Amino acid sequence: MKIPRRLLAVVAAFALLAPASTAGVSVDFQPTTDFSRYKTYVLADGTPARREVAQERIVDAVRRELAGDGLRLVESAADVYVATHVLVDKHTLKELSNPDHWDFWTGIVDVDAYDLGAGTLVIDFMDGESGQLVWRGLVTVDVRGIPTEKMKKIDKLVGKLLRRFPPAPSSPGS
After folding, report:
1. What's CA 40's distance to the chain center, in Å?
2. Mean pLDDT in residue range 83-94
3. How many domains does the chain contain in total?
């Protein structure tokens, strides 16, 4: 009976290492860019979410956040182009539901399976003149749960990410 208990301990350790429900935010930008000159933006093609309603919610949240920052959405010839990319990595965690129940004759054990997933939302800002990437933000979250609950998280996650745009101007010598 020691082997199933060890196996359960290993599976439990991996479950603890699975993505947590808190969002990890990361931002990188071109430090020489004068972000104050960006007044207009266009929504560029990116990698949409699989569910159309989720993509619409992401785009709406981006529009609201950028409007709050004073950027105006235009049809073409913008100062900056904004693209969103949604990436989901799914995997299944299997664990013994009852490690003490093992049928000697059939070899059958009780196993529960859980779908886990890490979702990443990337928002890119490309300069309208040069086409160069000037700002990238990404947020990674656990995407388990009921779809309506995930939809409610989108506004919060986009807001958390875009609070870091534009970056604070760096002081000379930093």
Report:
1. 25
2. 76
3. 1
pTM of the entire predicted model: 0.70
What CATH code is carried by the domain that includes residue 22? 3.30.160
Residue 167 lies in a domain: no
Backbone angles phi, psi at 49, to 5 degrees: -65, 155
Q: What is the pLDDT of residues 132-148, one digit of tens each?
A: 999 999 998 876 665 66
Residue 153 token pair: 């998280």
Residue 169 placed within a domain = no
- Closest CA relative to residue 154, chosen from 55, 75, 39: 55
Classify 3 as helix, strand or coil: helix
In the block, residue with structure tokens 């609070």: 163
Q: Is residue 172 part of a domain?
A: no
3-class secondary-structure state, position 134? strand
Q: How far is it, in rounded angstroms, from Cα 83 to Cα 141?
A: 19
Is 9 inside any structural domain? yes
Tokens of 61: 């949240």
